[in-house]
Amino acid sequence: MRNLRLFVSAVAFFLCCIKPTIAAEYRLYAAAGIKIPLIALSQTYQRESGHSIVNDFDTAGAAEKKFLADPNASFLITTKPRIDKAIASSLLTNGQAIHLVDTAAGIASSQAVKPVVRNGADLKAALLSAKKIAFSDPARGATVGLHFVKVIRELGIEQEVMAKAMVARDGIETMRLIQSKTVDIGITQMSEVVQADRTTLVGPFPKEFELVSQYVLWYKTTGDAGVDGFVKLLTSSRAAGIFAQEGLLPVTSR
């Protein structure tokens, strides 16, 4: 009995000395084109680690601005040119950049009979015949929105398109306008089309106007095991499969 009491006392002392793992919260700002897979991966990470990821999705430019304004943020996912520029200007320091996935600019349609867009002439005809067109706000740093304005200028139809255009806050709103049939054509990342309603996808821009963006993950290398664990998940083969299912293009090499 004495030995049992000693054993119980020893176990109680040992348990009192163990420090419980404290669940941490990490903030992530990302371009909306990667929203659905990131939500799924964040939920997986929370189940497996106990730590939580607080996601904020916006245009590529707005996501970058929000991250830079938040000293407690850990992760940023936006386009490679923005990451490169921020690193070169020392806005991003003490961290690491990883090429995560790629995404292509695409076209969505709410019409029962979708336009066939094989070349610039097809794209021009589709845009001119549409009654309403939505695209993400270039002023808010929307990558595809900025590209689309250049395209319609090259096609010589900027005035006609802008007269019937609805400038959306981001790609998510663009797809809401498509799903509600408020507009005939929506211009955004193909991944955003697939994640919202893949049945509305017309396809990518024709070859001469193709836009493929590299989404880059930047994170603070502070030696935090929680941060490192989430990065490991994001760059795993399991994550690659989830990204591919949601319309994102795999990275062949890092």
TrEMBL record:
The keyword Glycoprotein does not apply. One of its GO terms (molecular function) is molybdate ion binding. GO terms for biological process: molybdate ion transport. Keywords: Signal. The keyword Nucleotide-binding does not apply. Residues 1-23 form the signal peptide. InterPro entries: ModA/WtpA (IPR050682). This is Substrate-binding domain-containing protein. It comes from Zwartia hollandica.
